[in-house]
Amino acid sequence: MEPVADEYVLEREMGCTPEELLRWLPAATGHAPARVEGEELVLAVAGGEVRLQAEPRPPRRLGLIELPVLALTLRFEGLDAAAREAFLARFDLYTRRGGG
Description:
Blueprint lengths: L6 E8 L3 H11 L5 E4 L2 E6 L2 E15 L2 E13 L3 H15 L5
Antiparallel strand pairs: 1-5, 2-3, 3-4, 4-5
Helix pairs in contact: 1-2
């Protein structure tokens, strides 16, 4: 059994607004219990926590198209690699756009 890391941090840019992300989160996190601490949303997941912090960035422009950009930091605390991978598999399924 793999030891649980104290903390694992993942940073991403997402093509959504903060409002869209909040709408997706219940399903994307399996309706994990959540609370707000300062500027972070803290999710109780698999005996540990996932802390989300989102910061809107300037939109990307492709010709006449404008796409929102959201910098997202996911901080995993008290989760082993298998729990992180399971969380991210579900999260990605619900938040990635335009996939095959």
